[in-house]
Amino acid sequence: MIPTKKLVMIPGPVPVSPSVLQKLGSEVKAHTDPDFVAEFQCLLAELRSIMNCQGIAFLVAGSGTMGMEMAIANIAGEKDKVLVCSNGHFGDRYISICKNRGLDVTPMDAKWGRSVTPEEVDKELSKGGYTVAVVTHVETSTGVELPLEEMAKMMKEKHPEVLFVVDGVAAGGGVEADMSWGIDVYFTCTQKAFCSVPGMAIVWAGERALKKREDMGSIRESYIDYARWIPVMTDTKKYWGTPAVNNISALKESVRIMLEEGLSERYRRHRDHAGLVVEAMAALGFRILAEKEYRSATLSIFLYPPNMPVDDASFRAACADEGALLAGCLGEYAGKGFRMGHMGNLDKHMLVSGIAAIERAAISCGLDVKPGAALAVLQLGLAGK
Ligand SMILES: *Cc1c(COP(=O)(O)O)cnc(C)c1O
């Protein structure tokens, strides 16, 4: 039997284009090679423009979690009072990272499936004393997208003294974010909607964040210290730690693909595909965890119907056999549904194949579904009907 090609439909890593993989497999250049130096510099300019960042884009080897640590280490010290908003698992991870650093942390949680709101954050910050606030743009454990533009504008207007940090790991490159809304730091990493392989974090720091770093003097960290990387990120001939040359070339190619599609087109496609996937899965009897006003464009959490004939592990194994890799749920939802990424360069073929695989798995697992029910919804939507 021919093995079924597995489509990676988890919230990162995502399928990577062959031209990006080719860059990874190409001969390793010296980090001082003038061609590489120029390519790296050009990529950094593109990254700044993608987020409309007036400061610096740091591109450093490490995963998204390193991005979380880098963002907070360079903006908050022991004297800072930090509000960390959590919409789920990754927000909770940020709270624990901040606590480990000995920061004065006040956590603010939303019920899973909902988001902290600008009104709630405004109310808390109005108590005074805060210097930094942190939110998650898209929470990967719940599929909740925070109303970022509204939140950032509220921050800028009502709490201009508070620096605003955004974990954009599951959003950046798939959902619009613009630092001029009032964002001081935004970060993501390469294996999510930026569609390259795992390995690097991208941290955008605006002018106010850079000023804050300067005011902090020396910090304990070295590898993730902005001050050490600023010379490199402003002049890629300089050296601090050896840049991940092949990863950087691969990301450059991925960003070329993103810019060729066009950012507004890309964000619109993510939003449209997300809507169609949700409708298609609803036709199979799956319920979406995130409440309607907070559904993310990059990933969704689908909950099993009440009369589910098989358990979570068996269902996802059946999906994998049919060619769709899905992720298990986290926290209180573990076993109750699955997480599906629909971010990156998913085209119509991939989307149809992925949903078709899930539909076949649903049929083989004995769910009460009409064959073609999900595909009918998807096909009509993709055909623009
Ligand atoms: C994936 C993710 C992270 C962690 O990124 P890693 O690359 O796995 O370290 C952090 N925050 C959010 C919102 C994520 O989706």
Structure write-up:
- By secondary structure, the protein is an alpha/beta fold.
- The protein has 2 domains: 7-14 and 263-382, Aspartate Aminotransferase, domain 1 (Alpha-Beta Complex), CATH 3.90.1150; 18-260, 3-Layer(aba) Sandwich (Aspartate Aminotransferase, domain 2), CATH 3.40.640.
- The protein contains 13 helices and 15 strands.
- It has a 7-stranded mixed sheet, sandwiched between helices. Strands 11-12-15-14 form a 4-stranded antiparallel sheet, covered by helices on one side. A two-stranded parallel ribbon has the order 1-13.
- α2 crosses α9 (245-261).
- The model has no long low-confidence stretch (mean pLDDT 97).
- The chain binds pyridoxal-5'-phosphate.
- The site of pyridoxal-5'-phosphate (PLP) has 12 residues, from α3.
- Pyridoxal-5'-phosphate binds next to α3.
What is the CATH topology of the largest domain?
Answer: Aspartate Aminotransferase, domain 2
CATH architecture of the largest domain: 3-Layer(aba) Sandwich
Tell me about the largest β-sheet.
Answer: 7 strands, mixed
Count every beta strand, where a strand is a DSSP E run of 2 or more residues.
15
**Reading side by side through the largest sheet, how are the strands ordered?**
2-10-9-8-5-3-4
The CATH class designation of the largest domain is Alpha Beta
Determine the N-to-C terminus distance. Answer: 37 Å
Q: What is the average per-residue confidence, as pLDDT, rounded to a whole number?
A: 97
